[in-house]
Amino acid sequence: MDTANFLNLPENELEKKLIEISKKAMEKSYSPYSNFRVGAAVLTSRGKVYTGANIENASFGATICAERTAVIKAVSEGDIRFNAIAISSDAQSFIYPCGICRQFLSEFDKGEMKVICSNKSGEYKSFKLSELMPCIFEL
Fold it and tell me: Would you state the pLDDT for residue 69?
């Protein structure tokens, strides 16, 4: 989704728009085992938004989270710099990236990426990736 104009939006408008997009992405979730749908929207430094949903598998280790789905789509298209990612689910409580996703995101950002975590009601909290993953693993 081309959204170069998103880069010029005020911070709170940008966050709300990314949450809206991540909620729409959640509709594509394949989650027959957990029934826990998750959607993500990642904004690249070039102003493009990629979406993803969680895709489960009977072999649970093969399941992929919405955050990684969105980032993989972006990276496979040549976008490797990200400004923000929003995450949505059907949960009443706030949803945060799992540990694997936090580490995965840190591969492409050393802590400045904004991570927008929301709940079913549309409320959200924003963090820098470094706040959620203070000691990233690096080679």
Answer: 98
Residue ranges in the chain assigned as alpha helix (H): 11-26, 66-76, 99-106, 129-132
Residue 60: burial class (beta carbons within 10 Å; 0-12, 13-18, 19+)? exposed
Catalytic residues: 67
Spell out, as residue ranges, where the chain has pLDDT lower than 70: 1-4
Residue that the structure tokens 């549309």 belong to: 122
**Domain ranges, residue 81:** 4-131
Amino acid at 110: K
Grouping H, G, I as helix, E, B as strand and the rest as coil, residue 7 is helix
| Count: domains in the chain | 1
CATH code for the domain in which residue 71 is found: 3.40.140.10
> Does residue 136 form part of some domain?
no
